[in-house]
Amino acid sequence: MARSFLQCTDIPAGELDSVFHQAAALKAERPRGHPPFIEGQTWALIFHKPSTRTRVSFEVGINELGGYPLYLEQSQTQMGRGESVADTAKVLSRYVHGIVIRTFDQAMVEELAREGSVPVINGLTDLLHPCQVYSDAFTLAERWVDEEGEWAAGLKGRKVAFIGDTASNMAHSWILGGAHFGMEIALAGPEAFRPGAAIDARLKAAGLPLNYTFTTDPLEAAAGADVVYTDVWVSMGDEGERAERIAAFAPFQVNDRVMAAAKPDAYFMHCLPAHVGEEVSESVYRSERSIVLDQAENRLHMQKALIVHLQEEV
Ligand code: CP
Ligand code: NVA
Description:
The structure is a single chain. The protein is of the alpha/beta class. The chain has two domains: about 10-130 and about 295-314, Aspartate/ornithine carbamoyltransferase (Rossmann fold); about 135-290, Rossmann fold, CATH 3.40.50. The protein is about 40% helix and about 15% strand. The protein is built from twelve helices and nine strands. The strands form two sheets. Strands 7-6-5-8-9 form a five-stranded parallel beta sheet. Strands 2-1-3-4 form a four-stranded parallel beta sheet, sandwiched between helices. The chain is globular. The mean pLDDT is about 95.
């Protein structure tokens, strides 16, 4: 089976520095151009949900690496008419050198990787969004990298407060990614959205500690945090629950009061798209602590680094 990136722990901790370093190098070299690491390769991009950042950053990134991105829309493929995941994986593996997939079910992404023979990258599922968390971690590591160029070390022991939909793919990804990076994750959300057994089981399976806390008090979670993170209250696929969700999450807006509980130099982060005025106030979103556009830019550099990294033999 080829090396895939389906969840944050798929890059072993000992390889994190190399991935961060690669992302930094690709970012620095971009204006002049860099070697075509995947020259002659074609990567399929399968999207079963909408996307701006993920689709564009992968298309641009694969192109810049010398490869060809082949975008496959659900309604235009036989997968959309019920062809099995296993057959899709086996057939695509005869044509393309890698697959990026955004879909609903994490199990489908895992099956695609298991049944195929090319690298698969998870571009978001209902459960996880690992590309986003790696790009976010890189965005922080850029700010915290030490003089010896140790990227991952700068993340260790830092506190991320995740406030809002604590059962979302982003919250789950921070739980798993945070444990993998050695960070402290403090979640605040409604009791009904407390992260469940699915994510605890993944932590356990990866040999990681249950190093997150959950509270219904946003100020408690934000206390002393280095980062305050939020995500939309209505994720893709949750539109039918919009009214209930807005009501449940209303006490969990990231606003000036929440940011004041964090460290004075804490960053505000959001994966985007944002609904300003819902999960985050205009004042925080537009403040100098907000690094949301750097996060979005780093999707490009980090995903290119991941693609290059997955080419390496284990
Ligand atoms: N953050 C993110 O994944 O954005 P898109 O849904 O636009 O891809
Ligand atoms: N939780 C959001 C993330 C979007 C990038 C969603 O799944 O819609």
